[in-house]
Amino acid sequence: MLYTAYADDLALGEALAQAGVEGGCALLTSPAAYRVAKVQASECRTPTGAVDLDPVFEARVFTSQVELRWVESGRRAVVLAEQEHLLPSAFPGRLEPMRAVTTLPAHYLVWGKDAAPAAGWVTLRSRQVGTLALPMAGVAAERVRLVAREYVVADEEHGNAYVAEERLVGFEPYAVEGPA
């Protein structure tokens, strides 16, 4: 089961404080930059300090158990979780729970190779995207991939199965398989 709660007219900082994502990873999109940050005390922080949340127009913030999605348009915040008790009570809206017939792991290789480890962070560098710091405490990794969980549901009328939703769950080290 995948449970969903939502709230409207919330600033991103308010959504972070209420969603239960402390210690999680934030993917923040603004007109001038794309940032990856760690949630600490309802703030998003990079190795260089706090991120100004005012220009952010979209955010996906996740822990291994919950994901917060926020969009500036309507200031809507949505939380997804497999356990209903993890949904924030401050989010009054509820969607019908999604019953998945199965879940599938999904992985996305992050551009770059580890170049400069820092306490609690892995810094990846590539020609394509430059430098990207990811919050990964106590991990040494040459390559990193984003881990997600896909929820497969069956169409009630025809029985066709499809991926209806995806929830981000974390980053993990990745070793290239086969010849390099």
Question: Describe it for me?
Answer:
- The chain has one helix at residues 12-18, and strands spanning 3-7, 25-29, 34-40, 43-46, 49-50, 58-62, 66-71, 76-81, 93-94, 102-109, 113-114, 121-126, 130-135, 143-154, 161-174.
- The strands form three sheets. Strands 5-4-3-2-6-7-8-1-9 form a nine-stranded antiparallel β-sheet.
- The protein is globular and about 50 Å long.
- A hairpin with a 3-residue loop joins strand 6 and strand 7 (66-71).
- It is built from one helix and 15 strands, in the order βαββββββββββββββ.
As an assembly, this protein is single chain
Ends distance = 39 Å
Helix/strand/pairing class, anyone?
A: mainly beta
**Beta-strand content:** over 45%
- Order of strands in the sheet with most strands: 5-4-3-2-6-7-8-1-9
Broad shape: globular
- How many E-type strands? 15
Radius of gyration: 17 Å
In DSSP terms (H or I, runs of 4 or more residues), the helix count works out at 1
H and E order: EHEEEEEEEEEEEEEE
Q: Which residues form runs of ≥5 with pLDDT under 50?
A: none
Helix content: under 10%
| Sheet with most strands | 9 strands, antiparallel
What is the typical, i.e. mean, pLDDT?
A: 92
